Amino acid sequence: MTAMKNCHNDYKMKFSVDEEFPDLSLHNNHMAKVLTKDIYAKLRGKSTPSGFTVDDVIQTGVDNPGHPFIMTVGCVAGDEESYEVFKELLDPVISDRHGGYKPTDKHKTDLNFENLKGGDDLDPNYVLSSRVRTGRSIKGFTLPPHNSRGERRAIEKLSIEALSSLDGEFKGKYYPLNGMTDAEQEQLIADHFLFDKPVSPLLTCAGMARDWPDGRALLISQIEEIFKKHNHGFMWNEHLGYILTCPSNLGTGLRGGVHVKLPKLSTHAKFEEILTRLRLQKRGTGGVDTASVGGVFDISNADRLGSSEVAQVQLVVDGVKLMVEMEKKLEKGESIDGMIPAQK
């Protein structure tokens, strides 16, 4: 692929690699672990056809040295081509984040829910709610860190046409954030359908909140065929699966989250180890930047790439069920040492 340049990047080339290379000495994210001065020197003069540069890729990781709750990726893609143009950086980041996933590996998929076992027998005294979300990027457009106002509005227009054509079980109501009443917004947030304006530095430093709420909306309800009719499918390839902005979401783009009460287990010395062995991750119920309140955690799959949708949700179902059993043991004052699982 021949990468095009942009004028701003050309201007930066007046300065040496040493003058432009970011100080990552105190950083702890996947990008900082991978990026060397040699890689930066090789990539700094390149840009994707839409003008995204390696400095754009790494900016959020430069601005956010670390995170108190999770190991962050520290970089984003600005378009589909970013994963090819900057592969010397992004391939090792993907491998580091996704357990050794190699550039030659092919992603797996399985959307047959009948292959999922259990999930309907979780104890409601501990499991408060569950949600499965996924992400898709529309082919032919750039990604949120890079798209313009006009492009974002074009995506919204196309999405409105696609979503308004749905009928039956897929029919829903389209809520544009621009013009939504305070009462509607508060109710949708309370119902866990709507997120508030991104305030996390991980998102704002990546340019994800620009012009908020312009061009943003929510549909509460198969839309890919409509996009294809307009020559816009979803970004996908057999190596990376569904292509999304953050390398952590490549593959399925799926996050199966369960709000579960674990006040005893969460204070156990081996709680973090248990999560790691189950290939799960935790966050507060208010999102990635929040802590637990009252021992309630949002537990979800840590993996997106290299395993199927069913396999990822199955890890959540099985893992949460085991942790609830551990919680009950601890409530009785019993040991859980014999229940700690092997590495998944």
From TrEMBL:
Residues of the Phosphagen kinase N-terminal domain: 12-99
UniProt-listed InterPro entries: ATP-guanido_PTrfase, ATP-guanido_PTrfase_AS, ATP-guanido_PTrfase_cat, ATP-guanido_PTrfase_N, ATP-guanido_PTrfase_N_sf, Gln_synth/guanido_kin_cat_dom
Gene3D superfamilies in the record: ATP:guanido phosphotransferase, N-terminal domain (1.10.135.10), Glutamine synthetase/guanido kinase, catalytic domain (3.30.590.10)
Enzyme Commission identifier(s): 2.7.3.2
Pfam families membership: ATP-gua_Ptrans, ATP-gua_PtransN
Keywords attached to this entry: ATP-binding, Kinase, Nucleotide-binding, Transferase
Sequence positions that bind ATP: 129-133, 192, 255-259, 283-288
Residue span(s) of domain Phosphagen kinase C-terminal: 126-330
Record's signal peptide: none
Statement: the UniProt record of this protein carries the keyword DNA-binding: no
Gene Ontology MF terms: ATP binding; creatine kinase activity
One biological process term in Gene Ontology: phosphocreatine biosynthetic process
Source domain of life: Eukaryota
One term under GO cellular component: extracellular space
Nucleotide-binding keyword on record: yes
SUPFAM superfamilies registered for this protein in UniProt: Glutamine synthetase/guanido kinase (SSF55931), Guanido kinase N-terminal domain (SSF48034)
Protein family: Belongs to the ATP:guanido phosphotransferase family.
PANTHER family the record matches: ARGININE OR CREATINE KINASE, CREATINE KINASE
Record's protein name: creatine kinase
